Predict the 3D structure of the following.
Amino acid sequence: MERIIREQVGCHAITHGSTGWRHGAIFLRAMLCTVCIVLSAIEAGAQCSARDALRTHLTLNKISSADIPPIPIRSAAVPVWKTITVGKFANSFALVDALAAAGCTVGGSAGEILARPSFTLSATKTDVELFAVSAAELGFEADTASLADIYARAQQLGFGFVTAEAAPQLRLQYFDQPIGEFLIIGMKPIETWKGEPVILNVANGGAGLILFGQDGSDAAQISVASRFLFVRPTEIVSVHGLR
């Protein structure tokens, strides 16, 4: 009997004339479908890993009481975490192009902030020393604290606010950021086109380097485990009328 052979690629059937071949085709079809499902799951997992990491970070509500310092630390006791350079781009378009060329992911609200007229760039190159401190290190003992309270405490302890430009500049100058690290920029909130106040976060969620925006309203609840970046009083950017 002439054998009829018909093959299709992917998860479709491979049919043959004999019963034995038919059984083998069924088994092969099942195996191919399984491979397709596994590969799809891996791809979906890679795409969602950053989003899941962000969600986990932003909804974190617990911190061990043993990790809460008994006395708030002052800016004078905090060493420089990292020095970056601002004023390296002529306009925000060049800055955005540099982020894209570097393969850095920019979230929706962060993208809006970079396009707003209130987002400005330094006219000259300037080195800026950044200081990393958690809300717990500022003396907060509850699980969360409002952004307004965190900012007020930071100022009381001698920390200053960072310009919004520091966020994308840090993203471009911090390619070796550890996976799972999220750094909130202690900046004056900038409103989106819809009027929503946003602050920026430089992160590595596990699927790449990210710059994204988060709620920058006064009442926004922040986990006390979250780390902020501030400057010394000599580099303070005045913050008034936070929403």
The longest strand covers residues 126-134.
